[in-house]
Amino acid sequence: MLFFPPDIIRFGKNNGHTISDIYLYEVEYLEWLIEYIDEFEINVNDFYKLGKPKKFQKIINLKTESVKEIQSLLRIYKSVKNIKSSDSLIEFDYTFPNKVLDILSRKEIGIYEAPKWFRRPKPISISFELIRNILNNN
């Protein structure tokens, strides 16, 4: 199904936001949607007309390539809503990666099957007292 910039996402962490907002403030999520949601297609030219996406200045100026450091900076911004309200955003040059363009081409002719993705389970919190009780009862 072809989605357009004013369309609203009705699922996931950006539920209720337009696809144009996702492109402008969290373009990586848009790439993820294209790769992992079979029915999600866009015309990239519609999005290039919207202007340049924005990133946090801290991330653009980061002198490290450490994924962990970048992820820690992004943890507080879990959705477009939080990103849009930030005052430390700057525009950056962006083009969709070749991988995404290839996926969109294959979707257009019906030969793309999205890979399965799994949500990580939340860690289980067990108190020492519970462990002691379990060990003592065995």
Features:
138 residues; 43% helix
Low-confidence stretches: none
**What's the tally of helices?**
8
Number of domains in the coordinates?
1
- Rg is 20 Å
Shape: globular
Distance between the termini: 56 Å
Q: Report the structural category.
A: mainly alpha
Query: How are helices and strands ordered from N to C?
Result: EHHEHEHHHEHH
Task: Characterize the biggest β-sheet.
Answer: 2 strands, parallel
How many DSSP-defined strands?
4
Walk across the major sheet and give the strand order.
Answer: 1-2
How helical, in percent, are the residues? 40-55%
- Mean pLDDT level: 78
List the quaternary state of the chains: single chain
Q: What portion of residues belong to β-strands?
A: 5-15%
In short:
The chain has 138 residues and is mostly helical.
Describe this structure in words.
This protein is mostly helical and 138 residues long. It has one domain (2-137). 43% of the residues lie in helices and 7% in strands. It contains 8 helices and 4 strands; from the N terminus they run E-H-H-E-H-E-H-H-H-E-H-H. The model has no long low-confidence stretch (mean pLDDT 78).
Question: What's the arrangement of secondary structure elements?
Answer:
Elements: E1 2-3, H1 19-25, H2 27-36, E2 41-42, H3 44-48, E3 54-56, H4 57-60, H5 67-74, H6 80-84, E4 89-91, H7 98-108, H8 128-137
Parallel strand pairs: 1-2
Antiparallel strand pairs: 3-4
